[in-house]
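Journal club prep, shared notes

We agreed each person brings one worked example of a sequence with its structure written out as tokens. Mine is Acetate--CoA ligase. I'm keeping it raw so we can talk through how to read the token line rather than staring at a rendered picture. Sequence first:
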Amino acid sequence: MSHPEVLDSLLHEERVFRPLPQMIIEAGINPQDLRAARDRADSDLCAYWEEAAEELDWFTKWDQVLDDSKAPDYKWFTGARCNIVYNALDRHIETVNKNRLALIWEGEPGDSRQFTYYELYRAVNRFANGLRALGVTKGDRVVLYMPQLPETVISMLACARIGAVHSLVFSGFSAKHLRERIREIQPRVVVTVDGFYRNGQVIRLKEAVDHALLDSPAEKLESVVVVHRANVEVEMDSARDYWYEDIVRHERAHASSEIMDSNDPLFILHTSGTAGKPKGIIHSHGGYMVGVHRTFKWVFDLKPTDIFWCSADPGWITGHSYLVYGPLLAGTTTVMYEGHALYPQADRLWNIISKYGVSIFYTSPTQIRTLMRFGHRYPDQHDLSTLRILGAVGEPFNPEAWIWFYENIGKSQCPVLDTWWQTETGMIMISPMPVSVLKPGSVTRALPGIDADVVDLEGNSVPAGKGGFLVIKKPWPAMFSAVLNDDRALVDHYWGIIPGMFYAGDVARKDEDGYFWIQGRADDVLNISGHRVGSAEVESALTSHPDVAEAVVIGVPDKIKGEVAKAFVTLIYDAMESDELHKELVDHIHRELGPIVVIKSIEFCDELPKTSSGKIKRLTLKEREDS
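Then the structure, token by token:
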């Protein structure tokens, strides 16, 4: 039966990459283990996640693994007492990890700093005591308007240690945007920096904070803490502002961990806003740390010698889960870079991998598409032989960019793990493992303990090869607990659109092997002559052309067909736009997808409009076309 909400699937990717024998031999979770874990989770979901929770330290164990009595207001590990920072720091300094590097940081100008677990533990404790001296107590909120600095990690952990709720605001946002977040969150303290380096420029954040706080939009705000970074001159209000260095200088290097209920809030983080107004997502201590810890160790097949680098900004959920909390919970070394990927030239990321011997590199498809515009000459200049696993997150990973990443960065020796998850999920949900058979462009299967499906609007599973709506049918530990200032959001935005299922807002299909293919956001579907086509498929077809680096496709009205596609394209560094290339790209799409996809026009661009998290702003392009 055909439903109007079922999508046509036009793109067929037949390339398959099997894991190298050595990868299977050395894997912590081999294919048999993976099948057994799925069987355990399918037969007893709570027992599976209880086993994962037992790997962490708790002050008091739980009375119940999952309380679903008030679904969809699910509660995990009810009755348990814990603190995520105790698991990220304290337990490691009692082991051989004490003097292991926890954090390697590199500034854009080339300076660097390193912290062992013991050094990071002491730095966090000092700032935790400093926050307590400023009057911050359990349940208070602290806004962090910070770039990628060690003090950002320290501030996050110091807040969580004393039971305060941190909320990072991306450092690329304006004073106006910060003002809105401060008004919404009502923090007791704001932590910021005088300035930081980005693409060869100094970005002045303290100045933006001062503008944001004009007319006192935050009733509860008492203090602003400023970190020295760029040593630029800033105005300091003697009644409100404090230098970070002055606060921590005389504080003790020991601070007690606040004993938190498993479901006490840990942080508030806003969504990127690609699908409407950003929502303030609230995550809690217990379930979040269990989900992030298990997925970090399993997906990335963690080894004692690994150096892990997630290139995401800590202002987004990927930075929270897999730059800060995940690596520290697992006791590994995490790398952080302050600046721009193209500064001073387009080999900066490859230079960092080579310099520090990074073994696992987790980035975004946007980052890869940006860098592949420059070809292979930059990665060829660096020794990338320490890499053993590559990963991606954030948006659909078109097959050609996947292949470029695999061949030019992984040298055809590293599996590319294309992961699907969201701010709301807190942890990776659908992903290959290093031992999985890979298909470029597919996020493969749901992880053990995750019940994902592709359904129509009535909740019926759609046939293999047909597109529908991506849903999660059962709760998971790292799931968000609430939406800030919106008591109805759980039902209205997430669990009520397709009753009893978490509606992710993405359209997807499953192939005959049960592999998931993300086709785009549900509000980005093209409807051409009654054929519903995911925008990601058309964009993947475009980027499979050797001259195309990035592409975005939107629907525009058509009197005959109802809607046709318009494409916006950026080219690789040595390609030239022309009428001949325009025709060649249209013909290329028809060869790849068939005549169903009617292309009205292709506009060549130097760059595409993007959100601060790097996702393309289709709405901006649509509004421009409609004006």
